[in-house]
Design the sequence.
């Protein structure tokens, strides 16, 4: 199995991987074979998996898609990687992503963009573009990803695969290279909800090494997959179907909602009034946290160090100037600005207050419905290069995924069709499913019934 996927990776030309080491993979595969032969296997033993290059690994390089960490190898495995290793999964390599997970098109990677397997001229989405493209092109049967403001759901949507961002605090952030710590959350991307459930079973844990990890009883996320959906109330937020939504995406999403009605669900008109504010709120809070998290990359302890410098400050300055790409620098500047004395109250504190209101809107909505559904993104995947020099256009495209992250809620993307017209007919549309806290099993059930 590992060999089969390694061959596909080599032949693919999608740039989905940043680092592959066939010898290492085959070594893990041999160990898995031994476990299988000894009757010591889990449901996942011997199944290949690839990790977003945000999770640190001892045996593979860990780059976060950055020149800063181009040659970095971690002395330890991320908790998530450790869990999959223990389960006997076989690592295929590391997956390309936007630099430090900042982006919506994978074009911010130092290692170059990933191509969308459905249409090689389209972006795969981001920041987990490598994860989604690898699943879509069958370069791996399972992948890890991370979602800070949509990075699991949006690339899953653009590549026609299934991804789930669990409740904040369910999956350990230990060894996940930090972008915005109050938002970052790991999760799986795979072909189906059922596969995602199995992966989530191995991925989720209380981890004392992550200060925001939540201590909860172990649960089986696949337990409800086959429940029927009779009586399910689906909240359809008005604000997700406004002027910015492309007609072809709207049609695919509405058709999916109609199918849910046939499965016994009812649609409830709901309102998430602060949806639009999630963009400015997120693009204040995420850069603020990023500016703090990324201060560790100073050229002293690890990462890129400039070759020539006059003194310590000059070394910091040059190492960071050379090591970081433009989008990362932009976020550090914005973040330092909104946290600075005099602007903190006006921007950062204000954003935190609105963040709370956004979370409250969801709680009010969940009084009326069991799950919320809508589009993942306003359009299908756009052309490579189209928005590469336009950060604002990228930020605006995050409109439907940011609020879930700000509230810490679980969110999912499942494929529900394609765009329309000569160009978009090959580009997938994703349906977004949002649940209340810790309702991953319910989301997976609702997704599985559709699939
Ligand atoms: N597109 C968003 C950003 O650029 C979200 C990224 C993410 O979820 N990691 O910040």
Sequence:
């Amino acid at each position: 199995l590992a060999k089969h996927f390694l061959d596909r990776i080599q032949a693919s030309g999608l740039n989905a991987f940043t680092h592959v080491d066939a010898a290492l993979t085959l070594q893990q595969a041999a160990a898995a074979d031994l476990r299988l032969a000894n009757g010591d296997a889990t449901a996942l033993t011997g199944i290949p998996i690839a990790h977003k290059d945000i999770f640190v690994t001892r045996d593979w390089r860990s780059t976060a898609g950055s020149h800063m960490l181009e040659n970095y190898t971690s002395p330890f495995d991320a908790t998530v990687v450790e869990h999959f290793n223990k389960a006997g999964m076989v690592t295929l390599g590391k997956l390309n992503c936007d630099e430090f997970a900042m982006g919506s098109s994978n074009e911010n990677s130092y290692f170059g963009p990933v191509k969308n397997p459905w249409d090689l001229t389209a972006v795969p989405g981001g920041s987990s573009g490598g994860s989604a493209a690898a699943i879509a092109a069958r370069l791996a049967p399972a992948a890890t990803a991370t979602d800070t403001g949509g990075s699991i759901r949006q690339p899953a949507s653009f590549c026609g695969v299934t991804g789930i961002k669990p409740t904040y605090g369910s999956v350990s952030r230990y060894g996940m290279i930090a972008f915005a710590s109050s938002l970052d959350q790991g999760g799986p991307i795979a072909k189906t909800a059922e596969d995602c459930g199995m992966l989530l079973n191995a991925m989720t844990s209380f981890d004392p090494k992550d200060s925001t990890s939540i201590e909860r009883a172990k649960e089986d996320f696949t337990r409800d997959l086959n429940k029927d959906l009779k009586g399910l109330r689906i909240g359809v937020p008005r604000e997700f179907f406004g002027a910015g939504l492309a007609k072809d995406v709207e049609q695919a999403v509405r058709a999916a909602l109609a199918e849910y009605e046939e499965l016994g669900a009812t649609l409830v008109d709901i309102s998430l009034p602060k949806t639009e504010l999630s963009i400015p709120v997120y693009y204040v809070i995420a850069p603020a946290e990023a500016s703090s998290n990324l201060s560790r990359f100073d050229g002293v302890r690890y990462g890129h160090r400039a070759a020539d410098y006059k003194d310590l400050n000059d070394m910091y300055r040059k190492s960071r100037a050379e090591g970081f790409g433009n989008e990362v620098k932009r976020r550090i500047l914005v973040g330092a600005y909104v946290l600075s004395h005099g602007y903190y109250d006006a921007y950062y504190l204000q954003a935190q207050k609105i963040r709370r209101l956004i979370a409250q809107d969801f709680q009010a909505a969940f009084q009326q419905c069991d799950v919320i559904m809508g589009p993942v993104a306003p359009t299908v995947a756009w052309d490579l290069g189209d928005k590469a020099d336009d950060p604002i256009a990228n930020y605006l495209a995050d409109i439907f995924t940011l609020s879930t992250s700000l509230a810490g809620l679980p969110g999912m993307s499942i494929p529900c069709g394609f765009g329309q017209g000569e160009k978009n007919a090959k580009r997938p549309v994703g349906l977004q499913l949002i649940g209340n806290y810790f309702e991953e099993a319910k989301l997976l059930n609702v997704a599985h019934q559709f699939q």
